[in-house]
Every structure is written in C-alpha cells, then in structure tokens.
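Late entry, evening session. Most of the bench is empty. Finally got around to the prediction I had been postponing all week. Sequence below, unchanged from the version circulated by S.P.
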Amino acid sequence: EDIKGLVYKKRDSTPPRIHHNADRPVETNLDKFPFPAKHLILGNMQRKYYSSAAYENPISAIITTRGCPFQCTFCAKFFKVARFRSPENVLEEIQMIVEKERIKDLEIRDYTFNLRQQHNIAICKGIIKNRWDIHWRALVRPELLNEELLQHYKRSNCYMLSIGAESGSPRILRFLKKGYTVDQITRAFRLSDEHGIETSAYYIIGIPGETSDDIAKTFQLIRKTKPTYLVLQIYQPIPGNELYDLIATRGLAPAEHPPYSLFKGFDKPFLDLPNLPNKNLSRMRRLAIIRYLADVGYLSKLGQVIAKNPLRFPRNIRVMLRFLAA
C-alpha cells in the first residue's frame, strides 16, 4: 500500500476490488535513470523480437523521449506530455550498446522521434562524429519532417522511417485528431523517397463512423505514396482513451473493465459497424494488401531494398508471406 503508482487487486471482498495507490510524481529529468540492463536479454531473443524489417543483425533498441504531446483519440498513451533525454545521454547509451553488443541495427522506439528538430540533429551529428557502423530507424510525424532533418537522418545512416498516416480521408483524420493533412502525409513520403529512406506506413480502417468512401480514400493514398512496407490494421478499441469512451457510451463496448478476450488483434474486426459489416471489412483489408504487394511500385522498392543489402531478402519474403497469410 505504500508503493506509489501501484495498482493491484485486494482480495478482501467478492469480487476482488481494484486498489489504486497514490500516483508517483513524474520524473522530468530522464538522464538520472540508469541505462537498461540489456545484457540480461538473450541475443537470440533480441534478434527475433526486432528483426521483421531489420537492416542487419544484431539489433537493439533505444528511447530518446517518453510520452507524446498529441491528442490522437484512439491511442494507448494517456499522458499527453513529452519528456526528453539529453542528446549526450542518448549518445552515451548508443556507444555502450555499440561496444558491448556490437549492434548493426538500432530501432529508436519513441512514440514520435522528430518532436524537436535540434534534439534530433544533435543525435544525428553524434552518430556521424563517432563513426558508428550502424543503421537506424524511427517513428516520425509527417508534418514535422523537412529537408534539413532528412539530410541529417540520411547522413547518420537512417534507413527507415515509420509514419502513422492512419487514413486517407480528411474527415477521419480530423475525427481522430491527428493534427495533420493528407497533403502533409503525401509530402512526407515523397521527401523520404527523394532522400533514399525507406518508409513503413501505418493505416487503420474500421473507425466508428467510417464509410466505404473513407476507406477508398485510404487505399488511394496507399497507392499514391507507395510505402516500402505497409501495416494495415483494423481498428481495435483501447479502454481509457477518448474514442473508446465514445463507443462505450453508444453501447458498442463495455464501459468498465472489459475482458481481454473481447480484443481479437489488429487483423480482425472488433466492431460490427452498420455500414461496414465485419466480413466486408476483412475482405477489403485482404484485397488492399494483395494489391499493394502486387503493385509495380512496391516490387520496385523491394528490389532496391534487397540490392542495398541482399541479407534482407529472406526476411522481406517472410514479411510478404505473413501479409498474405493474414
């Protein structure tokens, strides 16, 4: 009971009641925390976890920030504040894992890496100055990408940017409170292509209130931007966020403590929308993925990826087969 921030079940009643201790104050100085004890992770486990689109093994991951200041209604992040590690602290950890783990691929696992341009540039300059033989990838916001950032990314061996485009429908983007436009999404993919950086695009279909016309606009945007990789998911409600509360008030999801058995994974519909039955939604997703994999633009980019590093060929084929199996 004295541990701040702990949530647990008390079995002094039937059913057991959930007890929430007082919140722990948020630590703003992230540099005071020790680096993760990565030596405790078996190398083979680490490779399996991060290797779906990796440039080269061995692989590791790092965070340069905690939290996210944006207001996306469907997201699992509840604290809308970002906290930053200093570039010096980040570079010190990278040096440690380069020397101890001999990594070749680094995944930056921030919710949004490009929140502060100068913070990013300082990290990129440190990677270049130290001449580390690594390639790296990160998740970025499309409207915050620009020529200067991408130049530093490329020079420091960034090989992939993941972009949460979410939808090709302006109406749905506003509904999700994404804070950017279709034009900004298109520009981000174009600039990444021009700088020779691969892209991984994240989209969601089956949003409450979405129509077949909205989904068609999403598929059009996928064809237009031609990402190197595509993650096309079906909406899954996450308790505690704004969109979940909305569907709960409409009786489409339990208001309190929903069992995990309700959630079926991002390739299966949770909601049976009146205008988009589950069967239709699954079929639309499947056809969109097949068309994406068969597109000349995708096959051309796949060829470029393999030409840069032939060792990625087996992994890319596995990714393609996994898409088709889904």
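Two things to note before I forget:
The two ends are 45 Å apart (CA to CA).
The domain at 35-325 is CATH 3.80.30.20 (pyruvate-formate lyase- activating enzyme).
Will write this up properly tomorrow.
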